[in-house]
Design brief:
Length: 589
């Protein structure tokens, strides 16, 4: 990627004069902004808010967005994907067919058109693309991966952090169609690899995390997470082996427990009175034992049946994992107080696994390692102590049913895990036949059998690439663009715009750079030198050329690298070469 800074934007002006460029900068942070990227993107003249979750991109910001799009296009093409464009305007019936209109609820923007037909604005395009691909008939036309870069609409309940979570945003969404599982695996891997290249080229630090497919459905998925304080997602990472997963998906096998197996001997089972003590906290305080010695018993409704889920007192049930463990469609619900009383014979807070008749017991792995535990007694105002799994109750299944905690170890190598806040910039899913079956996207195989295609879907938030880059690359003074996303490569600041000689030199430098194919912004505005230098740092263009005192004293210009503020001097005729070297090396060296 040595030449990754070289511009792709041939259809755009390579150079601009700021005096004529619509690039307003602000000294003050916008009042509604918390995220650093939000503040800096407004102050550096990239975006302006129109309304809740809707932002305008100004020319300077749009250049960054286009650079990100171009890198994405480039890598999609390299991975063999074909670009198309699907409508944002969609008949609601298509969403009805897959049941996702209900699943998305108010996030899906719906309305009636003038004929009274119910419509939606596309929040994503699995339905539309699958419908289109019905035109594919034969295995000979497959595999196929298509993609688009297009505006999506989601009426997000909490738009925040500027363009990181907005109601209207630019997404690259790709969809692969294959004849069999091996094909899907190959298509998925090709996209996964393309994503790694995209984020590397964009200068983003991104971790590929094991994830839960959520509302997309399907079986396997990875999220590409850019670590940043403002990120809404929490992930775990093992520095030793590289394992990374989001909190929903992080595995907790028996080996994840950091505690050594207890050497305690099992003691005789005993019932104790615990009047009015029904929470983990109350019971552990009352009996003077740590919460980790308690077993929580939670009753869930699964379809028309019930299961009792057992986790350690200091652990939380992960319902996503529970759904997988019970192997049902996503309908598990905590039972009501009445159901609990009916099944356990005691009010809520006193349920336990011992002699809990008629209910399937599902135990988390950590429960099975406990010795002399405390549980509800299935009797009012009472708990059992010295409960031992295997001796006092036998679960019908043991599984990973809980969320990872800070005490847990890496599930693959047992080293400590780090908990990191991150922004989800991309997501890849293996969907299988979930959509193609319902919508009838089938093909005829070599053996003439008609089968549904196997599908994958792959999203990237283009706006989030730009915002995450700003989150990861800035200092107290402003943005520090990764070279490949920088709206311009060089900024020339003429210190006194009313000085004919300096202006002349500025114009010459500007012309030389644009002739050499370097994208350059010339700051020829009538402003104080101090304010121009402040703006230069705020904008974050990688190379800063200053034409001022150094020119007046020894006919050379100052060239600084924004990231490190290291400086060098150059004669006008050496300027292009000096800047090329800086960009190639990524700084002064
Ligand atoms: P999140 O979990 O952050 O809500 P998601 O899982 O709903 O995102 P996907 O449906 O996987 O997102 O969309 C693909 C990509 O589109 C995401 O990885 C993200 O980069 C981007 N994206 C999703 N929602 C938004 C939004 N409201 N604003 C900006 N970008 C978004
Ligand atoms: Mg997601």
């Amino acid at each position: 990627f040595k030449k990754c800074w070289s511009p792709n934007l041939v259809h755009w002006p390579l150079s601009m004069k700021w005096s004529q460029y619509f690039l307003p900068t602000l000294r003050e942070d916008p009042k509604d902004a918390q995220a650093i990227s939000h503040k800096l993107m407004v102050r550096a003249g990239l975006i302006r808010r129109l309304g809740s979750g809707a932002y305008s991109y100004l020319p300077f910001g749009f250049r960054a967005l286009q650079k990100a799009s171009q890198i994405v296009r480039d890598e999609m093409t390299r991975a063999g994907a074909q670009e198309l464009l699907l409508p944002a305007l969609q008949p609601l019936e298509l969403w009805h067919a897959t049941g996702r209109d209900a699943l998305l609820g108010d996030v899906l923007i719906r309305f009636k058109d003038r004929t009274g037909k119910e419509m939606a604005l596309g929040p994503t395009h699995e339905e539309v693309v699958t419908d289109l691909l019905k035109e594919v008939r034969s295995h000979k036309q497959l595999p196929l991966t298509v993609y688009q870069i297009q505006t999506k609409f989601r009426d997000e309940p909490r738009p925040r952090s500027g363009v990181i979570r907005s109601k209207e945003f630019l997404m690259k969404d790709a969809y692969s169609f294959d004849v069999d599982r091996e094909g899907l695996n190959r298509s998925y891997q090709a996209m996964y690899d393309a994503y790694q290249r995209i984020f590397a080229r964009c200068g983003l630090n991104v971790l590929a995390c094991e994830a839960d497919p959520g509302m997309m459905g399907g079986e396997v998925s990875h999220e590409f997470m850019a670590p940043a304080q403002i990120g809404e997602d929490r992930i775990v990472q093992c520095a030793a082996c590289g394992y990374a997963a989001n909190l929903e998906a992080a595995k907790c096998p028996p080996s994840a427990l950091s505690l050594e197996p207890s050497a305690e001997r099992p003691k005789p089972l005993e019932m104790v009175k615990t009047p009015g003590k029904h929470t983990v906290e109350q019971v552990s305080q009352f009996l003077k034992v740590p919460p980790a010695t308690l077993i929580k018993t939670l009753l869930y409704d699964v379809e028309k049946d019930h299961v009792a889920v057992l986790v350690r007192g200091d652990h939380e049930v992960n319902e996503t994992k529970l759904v997988r463990a019970v192997g049902s469609p996503p309908h598990v619900k905590l039972s009501t107080a009445q159901t609990i009383e009916r099944l356990s014979g005691a009010p809520m807070g006193f349920t336990g696994p011992v002699k809990l008749g008629g209910v399937r017991l599902l135990a988390d792995h950590a429960v099975m390692a406990m010795v002399n535990a405390v549980t509800g007694a299935n009797a009012p105002e009472a708990h059992l102590v010295n409960v031992n799994p295997g001796r006092d109750f036998q679960p019908s299944a043991t599984a990973d049913l809980r969320f990872v905690t800070e005490e847990d170890r890496c599930p693959t190598c047992r080293n400590p895990l780090a908990f990191i806040q991150a922004i989800e910039v991309g997501h890849v899913f293996k969907l299988g036949t979930k959509y193609t079956e319902v919508l009838g996207a089938t093909f005829q195989d070599a053996d003439r059998a008609v089968k549904p295609m196997l599908m994958g879907c792959y999203g990237i938030g283009i706006n989030r690439i730009v915002a995450a880059a700003v989150e990861q690359h800035h200092d107290d003074h402003g943005i520090i663009w990764p070279a490949a996303l920088a709206p311009f490569q060089a900024l020339i600041s003429v210190m006194e715009a009313d000085n004919a000689e300096l202006s002349q030199v500025g114009a010459q430098a500007h012309d030389a750079l644009s002739r050499a194919g370097i994208e350059v912004l010339l700051d020829d505005r009538e402003q104080s030198p101090g304010s121009k230098l402040k703006d230069a740092d705020l904008l974050g263009i990688p190379v800063q050329v200053v034409i001022g005192k150094v020119w007046q004293s020894d006919h050379r210009v100052e060239v600084a690298w924004r990231a490190t503020k290291e400086k060098t001097k150059a004669k006008l005729e050496e300027l292009v070469e000096t800047i090329r070297k800086l960009l190639d090396r990524g700084g002064v060296s």
